[in-house]
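Project standup — Tuesday

K.O.: blocked on the structure for the chain from last sprint. Re-posting the sequence here as requested.
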Amino acid sequence: MNRAALTLASFLAYFALSGMLAPIGILVQPSAAALGVSSGEMVRTLGFFSSGTLAGSLAAVVLLPNVKMRTLTLSVYGVACCVLLLLLAMPADVRAIAALLCLLGACLGVGLAQAALVISRIYSETYRASMLVATDGSFSLAGFVTASVTVFLLTQGAPWASIYGLILAVVLVIFVTAFWLEFPESLQSEGSENAGLNLGAWPRPIWFLAAALFCYTFGQSSFLIWLPSFAQAEMGLSAADSGNLIGQYWLGMFIGQILTVVIVVKLGAAKMSFIGALGCFLAAALLFLHPVSLGSPSMLSLIWGVCNFGLLKCLVSQATLAFKKTPAGLIPSLLLAASLGTACSPLASSWVVEALGVAAGIMTGLVSLAAVLLLVVAVVASRRDTNLSGNKL
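H.V.: unblocked you, prediction finished:
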């Protein structure tokens, strides 16, 4: 019963963070209009949430081995509840919004890293990859739900920040349940191997996987942030239809990850990483080119989501198989690389768009997804020259 509750709380941690990230592209234009700023400035303002997530991921590397999980959970989600209440009060200053989003991102970033570590500790190696992919299923489901709800609320004339009410409800559930959950034992007592991770001891494939995680989240975030604007400018879609492309992508991700939960047990994380990297790049390229003969943009967006096949958690799972017992610092460090990609994308892509146009922002994401595929291939090529050659990695 406790393991099931811990699993549910971990899934909700993913839901909360995704629920903040997914609607960013949809919220850009209405929030910019409401606050009287440019779209580029609004992307950078909303992007402070990603910067906060990066800070939270960095803090998690230090906090997880040294702070009791119950204490950490109550602290970060208690603060998150307060921040969301302030955001729902609709501050009119973009600097205040940026500061609140940054703090919220830090809280949810710590919570996400802890959730991934909890899953890796309470499930055996046989089911670890499958369950980590399942957490990403919650992430994708949240993307679909929050994107769809955001479009609905905006079309009904609700304030642009209304979607944060749903995130507040999810965060409250995590906060309340943390009072009675029995978390895994303190990681610090499990020996020096698990108290941290010596980055200098990482084999080369682990570094490649960390770089792939950075490129994946950078490319995914850049593509999704500018996809609604690109769809309106280049595909001729309405604001509602272009916003629904984000929901379709996350729905496809959810479907792909449900499939991966089953398939990864048979094929392994390494093969699924390659399949996901290849599918993610090819489907994104098709969506960018949007050939009418292959289907509507909505269908292509759904296919792109499916073709990811739980890529992020397959990459993380692939790295954990290099160790007999997952070090406490490994997963937070890998998620830090992923958070860095998400944090950099709003700033970098907004500069590119302001200089070269919306299509260039989409191309930035596409090039980054191509790099993911190359890095995954590099992991396979480097296996023969590392001490990981005898592992499942």
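K.O.: great, moving the ticket to review. Residues 271 and 361 are 30 Å apart (CA to CA). The radius of gyration is 20 Å.
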